[in-house]
């Protein structure tokens, strides 16, 4: 939703000619390097349907489509959109999805002053094209970046849900293909933004989400965690070979199919701050009986964000006889909108909770009792803050104390 200026963007104050496609027609106009896309379409091109609110990318009032992707026009430099396909609310006049949303907004009393409505419709249209069903939670999360000071959101959510339900009942499926992301103007979404009616027609034909495993995967982030259980290492390592039982102990995990003992298809529901999503994809499993070690290499996507990870584990003797210590080396890469919530500190906090619950469930299952129900766990903001501050203080003291 944010923009990154291209290397060729001119210095602040310098002017250049910018050529792009605006609502289906080519336009060329001059703009200074510091001009954002919202000011460019409003003041230079006289399309005032795009509203400016906070001008900090928070309120979502200025949301438009750039190469088929919703983008904050107040954060996007016009110069970064050279050659891009830009669609404002005026360009959606004849779009059937937007027409259905406008009617639903009127029917459900989903607007009052109307200031937020153009950006809200652009974001809502994106949800109609992407969500497989009218899930209120996902609709609310999807519209979390669009603020409304009038309606209380209930009518907006009902309007979007009604359009999704109606289209799915007509056999019009979601646009399930993963859309690569990049700076606005990079034509990352050009394949789905050429003509709006074509985009809607494409949505009726579902396609597989790309979750191929990279042969030479190099994670962007990594960390190590460990835990101990009061069972012999051989018994614990044997448990890791029973994938269905492992998934039953991991909060949020589900297995759809196992084409072979080394390949698994399924999903993982996670929560990062206010965002909850389900990544669905596949994993490849490796085991080494001689060293009591193994690997789990998986990749998944939720339609917009994509993650790939590699977990290396080894089972060793615990601190006392008859116990086992499991050491996990976790590497991962997270791409897409969810990456803004996936900072390493947050991911470690979530992973720590998942691993603690997994260890408790593993111990229960090996002990012959039923593990607790597995659900995706979120973040406790206060606990996270205390954890991060404590970690920071600990690092300072380990370095010899704070310095002035």
Automatic annotation (TrEMBL):
Residue span, 2Fe-2S ferredoxin-type domain: 16-92
Keyword Iron-sulfur found: yes
Pfam families named in the record: COXG, Fer2, Fer2_2
Entry-linked Gene3D superfamilies: 3.10.20.30, 3.30.530.20, [2Fe-2S]-binding domain
InterPro entries: 2Fe-2S-bd, 2Fe-2S-bd_dom_sf, 2Fe-2S_ferredoxin-like_sf, 2Fe-2S_ferredoxin-type, 2Fe2S_fd_BS, Beta-grasp_dom_sf, CO_DH_gsu, Diverse_Oxidoreductases
Keywords, alphabetical: 2Fe-2S, Iron, Iron-sulfur, Metal-binding, Oxidoreductase
SUPFAM superfamilies from the UniProt entry: 2Fe-2S ferredoxin-like, Bet v1-like, CO dehydrogenase ISP C-domain like
Annotated protein name in UniProt: 2Fe-2S iron-sulfur cluster-binding protein
Native source organism of the sequence: Xanthobacter aminoxidans
Lineage: Bacteria, Pseudomonadati, Pseudomonadota, Alphaproteobacteria, Hyphomicrobiales
